[in-house]
Amino acid sequence: MKFVDSAKISVKAGDGGRGCVSFRREKFVPKGGPDGGDGGRGGHVYLRANRQLATLLDFKYRKSYIADRGAHGLGARKTGRDGGDIIIGVPCGTVVRNAATGEVMCDMVVDGQEVQIAKGGRGGQGNQHFATATRQAPRFAQPGEKGDEFELEMELKLMADVGLVGFPNAGKSTLISVLSAARPKIADYPFTTLVPNLGIVRYEEYKSFVMADIPGIIEGAAEGRGLGIQFLRHIERTKILLIMVSSDSEDIAAEYATLLNELEKFEPALLLKPRLAVITKMDIAPEDFVVPELDAAIRVIPISSVAGHGLKALKDELWKQVSLQNQQPLENAGN
Ligand SMILES: Nc1nc2c(ncn2[C@@H]2O[C@H](COP(=O)(O)OP(=O)(O)OP(=O)(O)O)[C@@H](O)[C@H]2O)c(=O)[nH]1
Ligand SMILES: [Mg+2]
Q1: Distance 188 CA to ligand 2 centre (A)
Q2: Does the predicted model carry a pTM greater than 0.85?
Q3: Residue 135 and residue 213 in one domain
Q4: Of all protein residues, whose CA lies closest to atom 4 belonging to ligand 1?
Q5: What does 77-137 look like in DSSP terms, one character per residue?
Q6: Is 60 found in the same domain as 184?
Q7: Same domain, 175 and 140
Q8: Could you say which of 123, 157, 191 is where a domain stops?
Q9: Alpha carbon distance 2, 45 (integer Å)
Q10: How far, in Å, CA of 219 to CA of 221, rounded?
């Protein structure tokens, strides 16, 4: 599975229409005043995030997007028509850079987010505006302004909805392998996973969400122990965190607290995300195992990826949370 997808396109907003030079002509009025209308505005180019789109593949086939120019002004003070705007759909998670400078122009995050990426040129003023007491017959008008023009570099980062967080060996990769088509390496030694894996979890018919399996975290990860925590940036944008602790952990509550603590050291905002906890490997838990309460506000779901226990309840709960987040209104959508 490919996580980063990129494309380069050029966009050009429409130029403004020219202002018109014209003089009123009426029967019996030999020398009418200036009546040249203004040019229309050139079309803008917008980008709009669309969660139905999954890749940047379309841009391999079409690389150039040019909006119409504004129509030129006409006599009798008629303003030219504005050029039509263009809206280019991009998948959520597309970062857009100005190819010439490398500067990030926008980050398309939320479904429906719209950004004006290239501004159409203003129409020029017609000669009707330039008449003064001493210059009653201006024979000039303004040209239209140029529309913006950019080469854009787009990069799509597939955004995970759910990020798996746990100590090494907690069973993160095993969970993603039973819930999705992802086939990460699974082994009974710590730090099996070195790079994040993404998997698409199908839910009922037609529904799905993306899960990110990342390397294990240990106490002191923020100070560089284990694999460190830099890979936590892969879950910075997930909607939900799934905190995973194995049923054979020596102290489940302490392990849970350590994980939250390391998350907080990386980025305090991570703790503001909705989260769920699972106790994994319930198939090897002793008979008298009691599912602990970890945090008053969150649900703790016991599961076994190997035996398939609790997975339906987990998927139901994850879907519920993901769709709740999807319904959030546009906020922090960037510019
Ligand atoms: N009995 C049992 N073993 C499990 C279960 N889930 C995972 N394991 C085992 O636990 C070990 C670690 O599993 P992984 O899925 O690789 O764990 P991880 O959290 O991805 O580990 P790292 O990538 O090292 O962080 C493997 O030997 C798995 O077979 C489970 O539900 N029951
Ligand atoms: Mg793993």
Answers
A1: 9
A2: no
A3: no
A4: 281
A5: TBPPPPPPPEEEEEETTEEEEETTT--EEEEE-STT-EEEEEPPPPPPPPGGGG--SS-SS
A6: no
A7: no
A8: 157
A9: 29
A10: 5
Residue with the smallest CA separation from ligand 1 atom 30 is 281
Residue 40 Cα to ligand 2 middle (Å) = 59
- What amino acid occupies position 290? V
Question: In CATH, what number is assigned to the domain containing residue 305?
Answer: 3.40.50.300
18 lies in some domain:
yes
Residue 3 exposed, middle or buried by CB count within 10 Å (0-12, 13-18, 19+)? middle
Residue 322 structure tokens: 């993901």
What H or E segment, with its residue span, contains residue 178? helix 172-179
- Asked whether the beta carbons of 186 and 306 are under 8 A apart, the reply is no
Q: Are strands 300-302 and 275-280 parallel, antiparallel or unpaired?
A: parallel
Total domains in the fold of the chain: 2
Q: Read off the pLDDT of residues 155-208 as tens digits, 9 standing for 90 and up.
A: 887 678 999 999 999 999 999 999 988 888 898 888 888 877 888 888 887 788
- pLDDT tens digits for 248-280? 999 999 999 999 999 999 889 999 999 999 999
Assess if residue 331 is contained within a domain.
Answer: no
Specify whether the CB–CB gap between 52 and 13 falls below 8 A: no
Listed residues 128, 157, 186: the one ending a domain: 157
SS3 240: strand
Burial annotation 13-28 (CB, 10 A radius, 16+ → b, else e): bbbbbbbbbbbeeeee
* Domain shared by 182 and 67, yes or no: no
Residue 149, token pair as written in the block: 């023009």
